[in-house]
Each structure stands twice: as structure tokens, then as C-alpha cells.
Amino acid sequence: LDRVNGQDIVTFTGSADTAAKLRVRPNLIANSVPFNAEADSLNCAVLADDVTPDDIEFDLFVKEVAREMTVKAGQKCTAIRRAIVPRKHLEAVTERLKARLAKIVVGDPSVEGVTMGALASHEQQRDVADRVAQLARGNTVLFGANSGDSGFAPRGSGTDQGAFFSPTLLLCERPDMNSAAHDVEAFGPVSTLMPYDDFEQALALAERGRGSLVATLVTRDPHLAAHAVGRLAAL
Asked: Is the pLDDT of residue 148 over 70?
């Protein structure tokens, strides 16, 4: 960064902590180098209240949340961190999502049957555990770390020394009152369920992601989709 000048632009994606350190580099300040940071935005998936557990879209939502939690062990900026669902379908979403996560086999990716590998490093493993601990305060761990689920044993020789982390699903019963669920990102296979009572509340919760990179909306109603886009596109 000491080689850039006023004709350059620095665009950064990563943690807010790192962004804060980079933007005050003396060279960037001295040369008025534009600095744009996309940091710690918590992407979401919204299940609209017109979808029922009998609809194919319901299973599509569950499948997408589980996939985004586990691809690259959840270590990507576009992973779904907040799953916003109708309160009336919370139990059904929870059971189906837990059932799908239970099928995930963690371990050495070269071993037959393994579907999720390790985190990037032991440092990342500790960081994710710390963030999950923060999220667990005032929330409920439904699956994975600290949930009481037994038998988490990564498959493959030598995996006891690896930076593995169990897929972890939390429940935030009062997402309108709990700020941590919208502010704390565990950069691993971690997502939080958030129930809502009406669709306007669901959109308000989605907006609290502070400029998300992406968002998913699952609905059967094109008018509902158009309304959501009008509300969320600016973010």
C-alpha cells in the first residue's frame, strides 16, 4: 500500500478491524487515496410468509441455507449468516435444516464421503469459536458447537490436529432486540435463524445487515418479490 498514489483506488473486502487499520496508513492519507471497504456485512436469506412447508420452495430455502453454511466451510463473504423465517414455520425450518446439517460429514476432503473440510487455520478456528460464543449469549445453539450434539469427530487420519469446526445453527428468538445477531460475523459454517411475525418486519431485519453483498428471497409471489426489491436494492 505504500506504493499507491492519488491516481489509485484501494478496494478492500474483509473484517472491519482490518479495514480500520488499512484506511489510516500514512501513505493513503498523505496522497488522499480513495479507500472503499466492504466489511462484516451479514448476508441473509428470507423465506416469505406465502411459502408453506408443503411447497418445493420451502425445501429450496432449507437446501440453500445449508449449502451456503458449508461450502468452503462457510469461509466466504457471500455465505448466509442470517436465515429470516416466518415464526409460524420456525419449527419446520429448524427440523429440516438440522436434518440436512446432520448429513454433513466433516474431515479430510480426500476421504470418500467427506463433504466439508477444515477452516483456513487454527487462528480462524479460535476466532470462529469466539464469535459463536458471542452469538450464543442471549441466543440458543440449535445444532453444532455447544448444542449438546455428541459425536463430532472429523473423518480421516491426523484430523485431530486440524482446524475443523462443526456446522453450527443458532436461534435468535427476538432479532428485533438482539443486535449481536446482526453485527457479529462468525466467518465459518455458522448461521442464525430469526423468526418474524409479518413481512415488513422481515424486510426490516434484512436491512440490518448493513449493506450486504447479497441477499436471497424465496417466495411464490412476484408482487411480494417486487416490493422486497424496492426496499432492499439500495442496501
From this structure: no
